[in-house]
Design brief:
By secondary structure, the chain is α/β, with parallel strands linked by helices. The chain has a single domain, classed as P-loop containing nucleotide triphosphate hydrolases (Rossmann fold, 3-Layer(aba) Sandwich). Helices cover about 35% and strands about 25% of the residues. It has seven helices and nine strands. Strands 2-7-1-8-9 form a five-stranded parallel beta sheet, with helices on both faces. It has a four-stranded mixed beta sheet with strand order 4-3-6-5. It is globular.
């Protein structure tokens, strides 16, 4: 049996990462060989945001103490976790897709050496326009986010880059192609 690949998707805030993941999830909904992992986050669910599992701090602590997270990190005052169920999916030969943190990538790669990082990039001009359109940040915060995006160092190890300056379907189809190329003939469910 062939083990699946963990696809660890990262990108600057405003790069369109959530939109790309939503696109990929919809396009690959009928493919049993590609599974999108939900993040467990200490943030309430938003109507237009990421499809995540909202946890209180106490719930997050309890799951962490019980060893239920395969990966977990803190960022921007929130806590994020990926459930241990990904290990079962990978062992069954599924490609597992997760929304990751750029800062946590080295630790994720240490725990899953075969993971493929997927970096979603966008030009500074498009990034600024998207951040302004969503209306969450001040102009100073937008400038800092653009600077931070430019400072991200290319990670070591397996890396795929998806440029997301054009229409969503262009980058979306690139993501779909990347996630579904594995040979499914050797998977446990085949």
């Amino acid at each position: 049996m062939v083990e699946g690949t963990l696809f660890y998707v990262v990108g600057a805030s405003g790069s369109g990462k959530d939109s790309l993941l939503r696109y990929g999830r919809e396009r690959l909904a009928g493919d049993p060989g590609v599974v999108f992992a939900h993040r467990y986050i200490t943030r309430p669910v938003e109507l237009h945001g990421e499809n995540h599992v909202a946890l209180t701090e106490a719930e997050f602590d309890a799951r962490l103490k019980a060893g239920l997270f395969a990966l977990h990190w803190d960022s921007h005052g929130l806590r994020y976790g990926i459930g241990r169920e990904i290990n079962f999916w990978l062992a069954r030969g599924c490609n597992v897709v997760m929304n990751g943190s750029r800062e946590y990538l080295p630790e994720a790669r240490r725990r899953y050496p075969g993971l493929t990082a997927v970096l979603v990039t966008v030009s500074p001009e498009v990034l600024a326009a998207r951040l302004r359109a969503r209306g969450r940040e001040t102009e100073d915060q937008i400038v800092r986010r653009i600077e931070r995006a430019g400072q991200f160092m290319r990670p070591e190890g397996r890396l795929e880059i998806i440029e997301n300056d054009a229409e969503l379907h262009v980058a979306g189809e690139r993501l779909v192609q990347l996630l579904s190329v594995a040979d499914t003939s050797k998977r446990a469910f085949a």
